[in-house]
Specification:
Length: 193
C-alpha cells in the first residue's frame, strides 16, 4: 500500500469515527454550563437544559470534559453530565467510556477552537486573553481505568462541581419536552379529523 492510499484510508477511518459519534445524540442529564474551553474559568456559551439532545464531537484523554454541539452552539461540558441511551436505559458517559460510542480523543488548543467557533460572538473580543490562559486538568477528576469499566468507577471521592448535584447513581430518565408533547397531541388530533 502506498503512502497516499494509507493516508486516504486513515482519513476515511477518522471520518467514520466522527460520523459514529454523531450518529445518535447524547443528552444533558442536568442543567449544565457549556464553556468555551475545558475549565470553569472559560466563559459560558449558555446553559444546556436537562434532557436536551447534544452531539459529542470528542473528549479529552482523561474524559473529564467533552466538546459538544448543542442547538447552534459549540463548547465544553463535564462528561458525567452526558448520558446516552443504551439497551433501553440511560448510561453516563464515563461509566462506559468514549470508545463504546465511537467518540474520539481530542486536544484543546484555545486559539484554534476560538477562531473556528467563536468569531463574531460577544466574548470573542477577549480571545487573546483566553488563548494565553493556562487551563488546568479538573480538580478531583482522575483518568479512567484501563480495560473494561465498572459503572460508577469515577464516583469514588467524587465532588460535584460548585452549584451542581452529583449525577444520580441510577434511574435518570429523559423527560419529554413540552414542545414534543404538544406536537404529539396535535398529530394525534389531526389523525382523528
Amino acid at each position: 500500500m502506498n503512502m497516499r492510499t494509507l493516508l486516504t484510508a486513515v482519513a476515511a477511518m477518522a471520518t467514520l469515527g466522527v460520523a459514529a459519534a454523531q450518529a445518535e445524540p447524547g443528552y444533558s442529564t442536568a442543567n449544565v454550563n457549556m464553556r468555551t474551553g475545558p475549565d470553569t474559568e472559560f466563559p459560558s456559551v449558555g446553559v444546556i437544559p436537562e434532557g436536551e439532545p447534544l452531539y459529542v464531537e470528542g473528549c479529552l484523554e482523561d474524559e473529564s470534559w467533552c466538546d459538544v454541539r448543542w442547538a447552534d452552539n459549540r463548547g465544553w461540558v463535564y462528561s458525567e453530565y452526558i448520558g446516552f441511551d443504551r439497551h433501553g436505559e440511560t448510561v453516563f458517559l464515563p461509566d462506559v467510556g468514549i470508545a463504546a460510542f465511537g467518540i474520539p480523543v481530542v486536544a484543546f488548543v484555545a486559539a484554534d477552537y476560538w477562531h473556528r467557533w467563536y468569531i463574531g460572538r460577544p466574548w470573542y473580543h477577549d480571545h487573546a486573553r483566553w488563548e494565553a490562559f493556562k487551563w488546568h486538568p479538573r480538580v478531583g477528576w482522575h483518568a479512567p481505568p484501563p480495560g473494561p469499566r465498572k459503572a460508577g468507577w469515577w464516583r469514588a471521592g467524587y465532588i460535584a462541581p460548585a452549584g451542581m448535584h452529583a449525577p444520580p447513581e441510577h434511574g435518570w430518565r429523559r423527560h419529554e419536552r413540552r414542545e414534543e408533547r404538544r406536537d404529539d397531541r396535535r398529530d394525534h388530533h389531526d389523525d382523528h379529523h
